[in-house]
Design brief:
Layout: H1 2-32, H2 34-41, H3 45-52, H4 54-71, H5 76-94, H6 100-114, H7 117-126, H8 134-141, H9 144-163, H10 165-186, H11 207-215, H12 218-236, H13 240-247, H14 252-282, H15 286-309, H16 313-329, H17 331-340, H18 347-379, H19 385-394, H20 396-407
Length: 427
C-alpha cells in the first residue's frame, strides 16, 4: 500500500512538474526573442524590460491574490486545467500581434492567467507530500521553471532562426494544451490538510484575517520578503540572452543553447541540490533550511557580478553558471519553509501573496530596472551599460540572505480561530 502511495505521489509530482515547466516555457520563450522583437518594433531597453517585466507582472499581481484565494475554495485540478488552457491559447495569440502595444496586451493576458498556477500547484503538493518529504519534492518541483527556460531557449532559438519569432510562440502553446487533458483525466485531488502538520485543516479565512495573522509573525513575513527580493535577481537573468547577443556578439541561434547551458542547466541542478540538501540536513527543521538558503545566496552574488563584468566569454559563462546554481539553490528550501510556517487554512492565500510580490518586484521590476539602468548608463556614454545594470541588480541577493537570517529567530503562527479537520473544498 505504501509503495502504491509512493507511486501515486511521484506521478502527481511529475504531472505538476510538467505543467510548471510549461508555465515557464510560455513565459520565458519571449526572452530569447527580445532582439528580433526589438529590431522589428524599434524598441529601447526600457520597453523590452516592460514587456518581459511589469507588462507581465502587474496583471499577474492583480489576478494572483484572487486566484490564490480561489485555490483555497474550489477543486484545484479543475482550476489548474482552466488556467493552463487559457494561458496556452494566449501564448499562441501573442504570435499574431502586429504592434508592440498588441504584444504587451497579449503578454499581460498570459501573466494574468498564469498567476493562479503556482499557488494551486503548491497547495496540491503540500497535501500530497508529508512535511518530512516536502523539501525534496519542492526541490524537484522548482527545477521545472529552469527546465522551462531551457526549453524556451532551445525551442525559441531554433524556431525563430528558421521561421521567425512568431512561429516560436505558436509552438510554445502546444505542450500546455496536451497537459490540460492529462490533468483532467488523471490528476488526483488530495484532501486539504491531509497530514495535519500544522494541527489545522483548511478553513476559509478572509483576506483581512490572513493579513492580521501575518502582521504578528516576524518569521513568516521576513521569509516572504526574502523570497521576494531573491526573485529580483532571477528577474535580472531574463536579460542574459540579449546580453550574449550584444556583449559576446553571438547569433540568436547560438545564444539559445548557451542560455540553456549557462543559466538553465545549472539553475535546474541548483534547485534539485537545494531540495536534496534540505532533505538530508534540514528536513522539517526550518531554521536549518533558512540557513542553507542564506549561505547559497551569499555565495551566488559575487560569482554573478564577477561573471557579467568578466573580460572574456569563458569567465562570463563560468561566473554566471556558478551564480545560477547557487541562486536557484534557495528556491525549494525557501518555499518549503514558507509552507511549513503557514497554517493550512492560509497556504493558498500566502503562497499567492509571495508569488504575486515576487512577480511584481522580482520578475516584473527586476527586468524593468535593468532596462532603465542600461538605457541611463548608455546615455552617459557607458559602452557596457547592460553589464553594469545587471551587476547592480544581482547585488540584491545579499539583502535577501540577511532577511533569511532575521527570519530564523521568529516563532511559528497559528490561525486565530478553530478549524474543521474534515472540511471539503467547494466545487
Amino acid at each position: 500500500m505504501e509503495q502504491a502511495s509512493t507511486r501515486s505521489r511521484i506521478y502527481v509530482l511529475a504531472l505538476i512538474w510538467a505543467i510548471y515547466a510549461t508555465h515557464s516555457l510560455d513565459r520565458s520563450i519571449i526572452l530569447i526573442l527580445l532582439e528580433p522583437i526589438r529590431r522589428e518594433y524599434r524598441l529601447n531597453d526600457a520597453q523590452l524590460g516592460f514587456v518581459t517585466g511589469l507588462g507581465y507582472a502587474v496583471p499577474f499581481a492583480l489576478a494572483g491574490a484572487p486566484l490564490g484565494v480561489l485555490a483555497d475554495r474550489v477543486r484545484r485540478k479543475r482550476l489548474l486545467a482552466a488556467l493552463v488552457a487559457t494561458w496556452s491559447v494566449m501564448t499562441a495569440l501573442s504570435g499574431l500581434t502586429r504592434s508592440f502595444a498588441a504584444l504587451v496586451v497579449s503578454r499581460a493576458a498570459v501573466g494574468a492567467t498564469e498567476a493562479g498556477a503556482p499557488s494551486t500547484m503548491l497547495s496540491l503538493l503540500s497535501d500530497t507530500f508529508p512535511p518530512s518529504r516536502r523539501p525534496l519534492a519542492l526541490g524537484v518541483f522548482y527545477t521545472a521553471p529552469v527546465m522551462g527556460l531551457v526549453g524556451g531557449s532551445l525551442l525559441g532559438a531554433a524556431m525563430a532562426a528558421a521561421y521567425g519569432w512568431r512561429a516560436a510562440l505558436f509552438a510554445a502553446a502546444l505542450p500546455g494544451l496536451a497537459l490540460v487533458l492529462l490533468a483532467l483525466l488523471t490528476l488526483h485531488e488530495p484532501p486539504r490538510g491531509a497530514f495535519g502538520d500544522e494541527g489545522h485543516a483548511a478553513i476559509r479565512l478572509s483576506f483581512t484575517e490572513v493579513a492580521r495573522t501575518l502582521a504578528g509573525s516576524t518569521r513568516l513575513t521576513a521569509c516572504m520578503a526574502a523570497l521576494v527580493l531573491a526573485s529580483v535577481t532571477l528577474g535580472a537573468s531574463y536579460w542574459f540572452p540579449a546580453f550574449l547577443i550584444r556583449v559576446l556578439h553571438l547569433s540568436l541561434k547560438q545564444a539559445g543553447p548557451l542560455t540553456a547551458l549557462v543559466i538553465g542547466a545549472p539553475g535546474g541542478l541548483g534547485a534539485l541540490a537545494g531540495g536534496l540538501a534540505s532533505q538530508r540536513w534540514g528536513g522539517a527543521q526550518t531554521d536549518k533550511l533558512m540557513g542553507l538558503c542564506a549561505i547559497a545566496l551569499l555565495i551566488a552574488v559575487p560569482f554573478g557580478i564577477g561573471g557579467v563584468l568578466a573580460p572574456t566569454p569563458v569567465l562570463v559563462c563560468a561566473g554566471v553558471a556558478i551564480w545560477s546554481f547557487f541562486n536557484s539553490f534557495y528556491i525549494g528550501p525557501g518555499y518549503s519553509v514558507c509552507l511549513a510556517s503557514t497554517p493550512v487554512a492560509m497556504r493558498g492565500t500566502v503562497t499567492a501573496l509571495v508569488v504575486v510580490l515576487s512577480n511584481v518586484l522580482g520578475a516584473g521590476l527586476g527586468p524593468q530596472l535593468v532596462g532603465l539602468l542600461s538605457d541611463a548608463f548608455r546615455r552617459s556614454g557607458d559602452s557596457h551599460g547592460l553589464a553594469h545594470a545587471l551587476a547592480y541588480i544581482l547585488a540584491v541577493g545579499v539583502v535577501a540572505a540577511v532577511l533569511l537570517i532575521v527570519a530564523r529567530g521568529g516563532a511559528k503562527i497559528t490561525p486565530s480561530r478553530p478549524v474543521d479537520l474534515h472540511a471539503d473544498p467547494v466545487g
